[in-house]
Amino acid sequence: MIKNKMNIFLRKFTSKIITGNKPTFRACSSDVPQFDMENPFEKEKQECLLCKYNIEVDYKNVKLLSQFQSPYTGRIYGKHITGLCTKQQEIVEKEIVKAQSAGLMATYLKEPCYLKDPRLFDVEKPIRPHRF
Amino acid sequence: MITYELLMLLRSVPKPELKTILKRTANAIFDKGGFIRKLENLGTREMPYKTSAHGVVYDRASYFLYEFNVPPSSIDKLFDEYGRDIDIIRRRIYKKKEAETFECTLHDELQPPPYRKNVQDLIAEARKLDKPKFKYNTGLDYYPFQK
Ligand SMILES: [Zn+2]
Fold it and tell me: Which of B13, B16, B65, B105 could form an S-S bond across to B40 if both were Cys, CB 3.0 to 4.6 Å?
C-alpha cells in the first residue's frame, strides 16, 4: 500500500521535472488506478416534503396540519412516520398545538371533513421502527 | 415592532349585531394606542369541540382574525378585556410568524448512527469525560521498557 503510494508520488514528481511543471496525460505503467473524481456512488440529497416544496406551515392552515394527525386518536404522528426533518416536525407540532388551543382544530379526533384527504405518508411503513 | 395576530371566536349573531361587536373589539385596540393591519373573516362554522363561555355552552362560532400592532405592555390588558366580553367565546393572541430559512437535515438524519451529526456530537461530549492518559514524552510510538 505505502509502496504503491510512493510509486505514484515519484512518478508525478519525475514527470513534473521532465515536462517543466506542466501536468500531462500519459499511460500509467502500474496497475494502480488514479481516482480524482468524487464519489460516483454518492446518493442524491433527500429533502422532506415541506422543505422540498417550500411550504410555510401556519396554524390557520388546518387542512394541512390535520394531515399529520391520527384519525383515531387525534395525536400527532412522530417524525419517523411523517418523514419530516427535525426542524419541520418541531414547527408542525407547535402550530398544531396553537391551532388546537385557538379552537380551529380538533384534539381527540381528526375532523370528519378532512378524513378523505390524500395521505402524505404511509403510517404502516415508518422510517424507523415504532417505540412500541 | 411586533405584529400580533388575534384569533377570535364570536357568538354567531345577525349582521348588525356582529358589526357592533367588531367595532367594539377594534376600538379596544385603538384605545391601547395600536393600529390594525388586517381584519379577516374566517367564516361561521361548527367548532371542533364545544366550548363553555360565560355560563353558556356554544358549538357554533364566527371566526375572525385581526392583525395589529400595539405596545407589548398592553397585550395583557387587551387579552383580559376580551375575556370579559360576553360575545367572545374564545380568543388567542399570537405573534405573527416571520419566515425563517434553514437547511433541511433529513438526509443527515437518515444516515447510520455514526455518520449523523448529533451522534458525533454526543460521542465528542462523552470523550471529554475520559480519564487523562499519562504521556511518556519519549518520542517513540512504543513503550521501550518492560511492562
Ligand atoms: Zn426538511
Answer: B65
